[in-house]
Model the fold of this input.
Amino acid sequence: MDNIVLEFESVIIKEEEGGYSSLCIDLDVASQGETIEEAKAMLVEAVEGYIEVSIEKNLSFLRPVAEIDNPVLNAPDTIVEKFKIKTDLKIHSYA
Done:
């Protein structure tokens, strides 16, 4: 069993009506929460699940948000916070 550490630097939080949305721009994975911390935690969980399923199904998981939909480029004033996600995956290899 191998460990792989992945780090995603383009992760943002936006304030929405009634809470916050979070987006990992590198993967085009989003989540939400009532607080900034909840939105972060929910996004980390969503990113881990997305990567695990992609690996299980032998799919590419790197698929960044299209430039036209990227809030960093198109609506930077809506971003409340930027942060990084680092995930440690355990990969099972079989012959």
About this structure: The first strand starts at residue 2 and ends at 16. The two ends are 12 Å apart (CA to CA). The chain has a mean pLDDT of 91. The chain has one domain: 2-91.
